[in-house]
């Protein structure tokens, strides 16, 4: 069997759902399970209406709800007619009515708990999956709507619940595998789940990819397909650099680094269940179903370029903690990271010296309380408006001169580097620059490491290097198509 996940833009309107139906139809023999997101923008609207209700603007919440309901009804009637339409229409009205009740409750109490947020957000995938399943049926696909709240079991960490794999696998084998054996096509909402007691949970924003990977892992899928609106993973963000190219194949570890450092295509946790079961994940474009996309798998062959890709993450800050007295004292780093943990802040990059520690993290995490607690440990300085640039490639390991070339390229652009990190696993080189330098830095690095003129640049023969030299590597044709 295979899992086919369609993201928000791939089910955003009737034309998109028709394209998805054609794509699934062409793969019926591979026994697909279909996972869908909410229609593009719906989760954001649901969030906005919940916040409007909580802050006392019930009429605004109701207006947003009316628009969401209307949009779904219009998509439905463009796709299906007759009795089938009537039953889905009823479902849409019922889900909207239930949502209205919840929003009224939120407005009355003036309080929005994570648990209630999950109930509200789950409406998006419940709506889309019902429409998609019915549309598939009317186009000759033997689809059956499966309620993800009965199959994906999580703990009660609302808004970012953690799946309980054993129980989930059991239920999926029971409910979904049986349908596959009967040659039916299960259609499920991604992102949504429930606790063992049946309380609705969600897997975190962008969590439909994660749902697809969980289902794929539980049912031993041959492949997981993530259908989206881009060509696949790219060598860098095409908005920053029009020369960016599609990556044909990439390792799991490399793709996780990229997802983490700003590549928007995949949810960072998506890959974990797939990695554990060694299931290849294909990122594909639902607008161009013939295009080959990107295959993410273990043991991806060595790229012909030094790096697989360059990612950039803006909106970062660097927090420096200086403590000449304490840094070398035992337990200082532990105390420091305890503070970050207590404030639920994950550090993206860390670098230490004798007298200071620099931590790069998302600017949105700059709580006054965090800084207050850090100040107990030493002198604290915050530099905002920064960005992390991350070059990812598993095969930089053991290669001489790569870092020199990266930083020479950056220096040639007159760009100042604020912080540098390269882990011992040597899968990425990351550094911090001013946000305003990102465009120049990414374009220079892409030109140097991915674009033909420079990639083929001859280098002097290395002086008896034991490792494959940068020159021989750079001489090869770029990997991407
Ligand atoms: N609809 C959810 C979101 O927008 C989940 C997803 O699309 O993956 O975050
Ligand atoms: Mg997504």
Description:
The protein is α/β, with parallel strands linked by helices and 481 residues long. It has helices at residues 14-25, 42-54, 58-79, 83-109, 114-138, 148-151, 165-181, 208-218, 252-260, 271-277, 332-342, 368-374, 402-412, 438-450, 452-455, 470-474; strands spanning 2-6, 32-36, 143-146, 153-154, 185-189, 192-195, 200-202, 223-228, 249-251, 281-285, 294-297, 309-322, 349-352, 356-362, 379-392, 419-422, 428-434. The strands form 3 sheets. An 8-stranded mixed beta sheet has the order 3-5-2-1-8-10-11-9, with helices on both faces. Strands 13-14-12-15-17-16 form a 6-stranded antiparallel beta sheet. A 3-stranded mixed beta sheet has the order 4-6-7. Helix 2 (42-54) runs antiparallel to helix 3, helix 2 packs parallel to helix 4 and helix 8 packs parallel to helix 10 (271-277). It is globular. The two termini are 28 Å apart. Bound molecules: aspartic acid and magnesium ion. Aspartic acid binds next to loops.
Structural class comes to: alpha/beta
Shape: globular
List the uncertain runs: 456-481
Query: How many strand units?
Result: 17
Major sheet, described briefly?
8 strands, mixed
Strand content of the residues, in percent? 15-25%
User: Count the helices. How many?
Assistant: 16
The set of bound ligands, ions and cofactors reads: aspartic acid, magnesium ion
How far is it from the N-terminal to the C-terminal residue, by CA?
28 Å
Oligomer: single chain
Q: What's the pLDDT, averaged over the residues?
A: 89
- Order of adjacent strands in the largest pleated sheet: 3-5-2-1-8-10-11-9
Q: How much helical structure, as a percent, in the residues?
A: 40-55%
What is the radius of gyration computed over CA atoms, rounded to a whole number of angstroms?
A: 24 Å
